[in-house]
Design brief:
This protein is mainly α and about 450 residues long. Helix content is about 75%, strand content about 0%. The chain contains 26 helices and no strands. The chain is extended.
Amino acid sequence: MKLGSNRKQKLIELGPDALADALLNIAVHSDEADDLIKQLIATPKENIQRFKNKLSGLKRRKRFISWRESASFARELEMLLRDLKAGVDDPLNGIELVAAFYKADNTIFEMCDDSSGNIGDVFRYDAKELFVNYARRCADKDKIANIILKVNQKDNYGIRDTLIDCAGECLPEEAIRTMIATLQKWADKEKDEYGKRHHLRLIESLARQIKDAKLFEKTRIASRGKLSTAAIIDIARVYLESGDVETAHSWLKKIPEGETYQAYERDKLLEEIYQKQGNSEKLTELLFQKFRSHHSTDTLQAFLDVIGHDKWDEVVADEVVQILKADRLQESDAEFLISIGKIDEAEAYLLGRADQLDGDYYGSLLSLAEAMESENRHLVTSLIYRSLLVSILERGYTKAYPHGIRYLKKLDKLSEAVTDWKEFNTHEAFKEQIIEAHGRKRSFWSKYEVKK
C-alpha cells in the first residue's frame, strides 16, 4: 500500500505535461491505452456514442476470435462498458444500454470461442455490477423489472439470467413478485418443455431471493417432477435460508440412507441445522463422522469446537490407532499425521503400505515426499520418489521427463543417506529394474546422463 501511494505521489509531482506525454507515447504502442485516452478526453455524450458504435460494430465483424484471443476480447468488452459508465449518469438510460449489451450476447458468443470463460465473466461480473449500480439509483422499479423480464424472454447462451439472479440487489419484494407472476404466465403458456423450464428456473431464482421457500419448492417440483438428491438439497437449503429450520431438516430426511451424491453439501446443511436446533448430540455425531471419513486439521478443529479442545490428546490418540489399523493407503491420512506432528507414525504408515504408492497421484505424493525429506526420513522419501518416477516412465510421458530426471537424481542422492533398506530393494537394484523395463526410452536416459 505504501509503495503504491509513494509511486502515485511521485507521478503527481511529475506534473500534467510529463504525464500527458507519457500516456501519448504508450498509446502509440497499445490500442487499449489509446482507447483509454479517447475515453478520458471524450464528453459524456461522446462516450455514449462510442459505446453504441462499438456495440453495433461487433455485428459487422467477420473474423472469428479463438480462445487464445478471448482474454484480449474480454478486455475490449470491459472497455466498452467503461465508455458507458463514463458517459451515462441517468440511471434509466444506463439500465437500458446495459440491457442492450446483454441482448448482444448472440452476436458476441457466436464470434468467439469462450471455452476459457473470459467473455462470460464480463457479463456475469462487469456488466451485472454496472446494471445493479444504475438500478439502485433508479426510482422506477417497475420499469427495471420489465426490462429484466424482456431481456430474459430468451436466453440462448445462459448468460442473461444474470440479471434475474441479481434482482434482489436492486428491486423491492413487491416488484419481484410481479415478475414472478409474469414468468408463471409465460411458463403456463409455453408448449416447448425447454422454454417452460427456463421460465420456471427464473422463478426459482426470484423465490430464493425473497426467501419464499414454499414457492421455490412448488416451482422445483413443477419443473422436475420426481426430485433428485440435488433438488432435495436445494429445497432444504432455501427453507433454511428462509429461517424454517424444521422443514429444511424434514426435506433432508427424504434423501435415501447411504446416498453419497452431494454428501458434502447435505452434511454442511445438517451441521447448520443441528447448530440452530441446539442438538449437540447429533452435531457431535455428524462432525465425528466427517472427521473419521476425512482426517484433516479442519475436520478435527470443527469436532473439537463442539466437544472441547481439552479432548485433543484423547481424540488424536484414538484416531491414530484407527489410521494405523487400516489396510488401505489414504494419502490424506498420511498428510494428517504429518500435520499433527506424528512423524514417526506417518513414516510407519507409509512404509507399511509402500506397495500401494501410486505415482499417478502426483500432487499429494510430492508434498508427502517433501515433508518426509524435511524430517530426514530418507527411506520412505525414496520409496515415494520411486513411485513418481515409475509412473512417468510407465506412461512414457515425455513432457514430464525433466521431472523424472530430477526424481532419479534425488534418489541417487538419498541413497547415500539410507543405511537400512529393510525389505525394500536397494537403490542399485531399483535402478537396474527400471533400466531393464525402460532402458529403450533413450530420450530420458540421454538427458539423465548429460545432466548427471
